[in-house]
Amino acid sequence: MDCSNAYLMELIDKKIVSRNIEFESRNESAEVSTNKYSDSTFNDEKQQLQAAYYLEISEIIRNYNQVVLFGPAQIKNQLYNLLEFDHNFDHIKIKNINTDEMTENQIHTFLKEYYN
What we know:
This protein is an alpha+beta fold. Helix content is 46%, strand content 24%.
C-alpha cells in the first residue's frame, strides 16, 4: 500500500490473486497554476478523497478474518489506526508491518511465508 495504490492480494490455494485500488487525486499542478482553490479547500478535498479511498479498502477488508497491511508508506499506518478504532473490524485480526519496498516476487514470498 502506498499513497496512490493499494494492492489487495488474497492467498487462495497457495496462489496469490491480486487487484489494485487507486487513490484518485486531482492534478495539483493545474490547481496551483490557476489558483482556483485556496489551500484549505485543497486540503479539504484531499481529505475527502483519502476518506473515500480508505472506505473502499475497508469495505473489501471487512470480508476477511485476517489482514496484513505492509509496505514502507505511512498511509498504511493511517488506515490501520482507523480500522483499529472502528468496532466493525473487531472480529478481524489485522497486522501492520513496516517493510522495505518489494518486487512482486518478494511480495508473493512474503505473503506465503506470513500466512503459512
